[in-house]
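hey so i finally got around to running both of the ones u sent me last week. sorry it took forever, my laptop kept dying halfway thru and i had to restart like 3 times lol. anyway pasting them below in the order u listed, first the sequence line then the structure token line for each. didnt double check formatting much so if smth looks off just lmk and ill redo it

first one:
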Amino acid sequence: MDSNSLYYSLDLVAGNGCTLNVEQRTALQTSLVIMKKNYKFQRVLFWGKILGLKEDYFIAQGRGENEMKDKKNLYSFNCMDWFLLPPATHTIIEEVSKAGKGRFIGDPSYVYEHLEIQRQGEGDEAVEDEVVTKVNEEKRLAVTVHQIDKEVSVVPRSAFIKSPHGLVQMNRSFGGLSHSEAGKLDNFLHFTESKNLKKKSILEMADLNPAIDFLDVLSDDIPKGSWSLQSECASKVCVIRSLLWPGLTFYHVPMTPQHGYIYIGDGTKNLDLPFML
């Protein structure tokens, strides 16, 4: 959610009981402005909070000219001192998938270890090698934020436009979805590179506007039912919650450009979801 409307936005997503206290809100109001100036970001978002056993990680995200590709994530323990997270490369993602298990500790230097025994050769000549994969919690945090952004970050249709050169920016003329549009998952999109558009037929593509329909629709997600859409605050705000990553909450105020999402959870994916639906 945008740092400029943090106070207002936090109240809209507080229906599930996850929010920030007054001290944390006040610290964020100051530190995010300083961060935007120091790192020369076009826009700063408060991304959320990942709960640890000892300490909690507060995450902020800075955006550049291209809203989709120019992203940098930072973390803090006190909402004042921010540290840059490393980019989630394929190598780091592979290491974390093997070693990063269980709850977050709250110590960036904590090292997770995974022992794997590989057999080489056959029969009596077979040799067993022990391969140890080590990864620290800072890298695991970077990968978790990257995966949540990739799988469940949400925006309303028309909130962002794509230029013919591939530049993705905020749509200044976006006035918000109507109340009837906000009640349908078809009007909410994944804010990440599209996967399903290439699979659509020519007839389906004919109805799409390439400037605004360049993202995947939430209603196409598998398994069906992985999103919960509700109206709250006397139908003043539309709230969508992810069941795949419990803790991800998106809000949109119909007929206004106000929208955003926040993640407050322990950073674990609900892999049992297909069996729960």
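and the second one:
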Amino acid sequence: MAAMRTLTVAGLFLAFCALGLIAIAISTDSWYETDARRHRERCKNYSNKRNDPGYIYISNNNLPLRMLPKENNVERKGSSGGTLLRAKRHLLPPAPAMESLCSRQFNSTITGLWRKCHREGFDLETEDLIFKGLVQRCTPIKYYYSSSALPRNLPINLTKTIRQDEWHALHLQRMTASFIGMAISIILFGWVIGVLGCCKEHDLMQYVAGLLFLMGGTCCIISLCTCVAGINFELSRYPRYMYGIPEDISHGYGWSMFCAWGGLGLTLLAGFLCTLAPSLYPPHTPVAHKPRQENGCV
């Protein structure tokens, strides 16, 4: 009996902690983070390069000279057995690539379920515009379809592909938000049932609470997997020159995402404990009643 109560209380405590972690994840914006400081500094250095006649600009990161692997550059000449190694050097013009990357504006941002914000203290120019009121710190994420502005010279097939990708990305966002909302609602309902079952010592209510915790964990898994799929889909959208991220921009998941994953783990563990607790109840043995003696007959 004591072991059953211990498992039930432990499961309810873990479910309460999971509710707190998931609520923190939903209410914060650090699901996905980008850091564009290195890219902006690189583009600033490129725009400030000298363009006077006779000056050749060579980037420190992308040198224009590159040597191919040795086995591809070996050319044998001569009939006397003499071998000459010739290394072929190819010119790589970095200027057009740099101009195409720097023509797009990249900022250091954090993204949550409800809004996308500029990271504080990362871009001084952006901070100055925010201080003057010209740029908003955060912009809400739209859960309804609104077509983006596209160049008019794009082919029709490419335009249709972009529109379809926008719809697909919107569906992934909606699934992420809806399933995480369902998860926290189911977990909260199961926690209330589990508390009532623990107070009344009702094993069936505790078992139902455990099943609800497992159901809420399943919804949380779907939401987090959909969120990861949506981020990967945005990074791989076509065409790359419009939606790709340069290599010198660091990006990754934030602490809000890890809070959601932690809440998921605690929810599944709480469901396992609450469904295991009713099996520790002592078996109910029926009481056998002796037949009464009536009229002196045994």
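quick thing i noticed on the 2nd:
Residues 101 and 246 are 7 Å apart (CA to CA).
anyway thats it, ttyl
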